[in-house]
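Input chain follows. Return structure tokens only.
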Amino acid sequence: MPLYHIEDGSIIGQPDAVTNGNRRASQHALQNWLTALLLLVCAGYYAVPLADSDFWWHIAAGREILHTGGLPDVDPFGVFPAADPIRNDTVLKGQWLGQVVLYGLYRMGGIDAVVAFRVAVLLICIALIHARARLLSAGHPLALWAVLALVALNAGGFGGERPQLLSFLFAALFFVCIDLARQRRDWRWLWALPPITVLWANSHGGVILGVVLLGLWSALGWLDKSLPPRERRQWLAVSGVVFLASLLTPNGIQTYLYLFQLEGSVLQQRTSEYTSTLQLYELGLVWQQVWVYGYFLLVAAGLAGLLWLRRWQEAAVVAFLAAISMSSYRYFAFLLFLAAPYLVLGLGRLMPAWLSGLASPRRVLALAASLLLAVLATGVVRGAVFQGGLHRMAYPVAIADFVERQKLGGRAFNNLEWGGYLLWRLGGQVRPYIDGRMLDMSRFPPYTHILWATPQGVQWFDRYNFQLVILPYHGRFNPQRYKLIDYLSQRRDWRLAYRDAQGVVFVRRGARDLFGGRR
């Protein structure tokens, strides 16, 4: 019996299926437009001037790799001895593909090409969250847009122009394949994981996280007796192949050994990226801390919903990523980009019926669109969106110009954050004492003592026979003036050769420079 009839050429009453189908199609179209608007707003706010301190030594390494046609066994810039073979090989060879990509982008399009690449990677990761949530048929739009909003707010803190950008991208693609294989029961998607793993492993050490998460997922799948034995064996087989694929790098198993070596090391203690995600306020990142706390509230609620739904594999991924993110901020990006669709799924299960009725999909989408337009308009008025270029105050640009122009050279004491830029700009003319690669972690104690001109630091400083000192007035997170600057101002064998708003250059009197002259 038909559910509708046509009278005088007009439709009288429509079937529920048609009505619901049209409504869903309309909502999907509106969500697509809203997602495009979100990505536009994110692009505007993520397009900020380049300011990463490690970017320069990465592209300097990429340049060396391309020019020599091989991977270095020792520091090509002569800064560090090969004191630690595992760290030496990991840093010099473990990110070679990512370094070559960054240098290639810089050579083709300059700074703006690198900034555009950073923005593109972050946008792709956010877009894939939306696509995976739709694949999972995950929940009410209110849950989706609550998660997307906090992901977008937090993702801006991971715009460092380093090979880790590729790690975020490959991790997101990794889980797209996992979700497609599970949801569509099409196991061919799993065999895209090994080639992704090879590219990931040669770009960044974050590949270990992908291997561990896939192993966790497969192990829980093996315990799920509702799955056919063939499917369970297939997940385990792919996990084994992915592990082997992760070894197809110049360093092989050393990539894993380095992870254990790094745990609890001095470098880990001295690197801001290893700060607990719950203690970012100690670095002055107050608003970032607010967004982080908000996201962790969603993580707790979403995890509860996943357990209620008995989605054990998704819950395990969320719980594992949350645990390591609490210990170190550097892992938080993976909690954002990988766990978000599962949080949407869990939050949808917990959402009470009255809230779903009050916040209808159309109301949620209309409110989200209004907020996004307001945020974009505010950024345009303030001139805070769609920027590019170089954040010159983050680097000693004028100082390097002076050193290059005056043909100063030799061994220079510098702060760690400027080391990479000095390698790029003055490599072959100036040899920095330290840079972000930290191939020899035994340099940390002398470095700290020299900066603060302790009695032991003064002895180390004289022993190294520096010809130059190139320093900012203070560190990025500590406004206290470096004592070495005041100390050198009182020594007759050193003269202040240059100063500007960023820092100073001291030259040792009577020292021979790299060109054989005397100062």
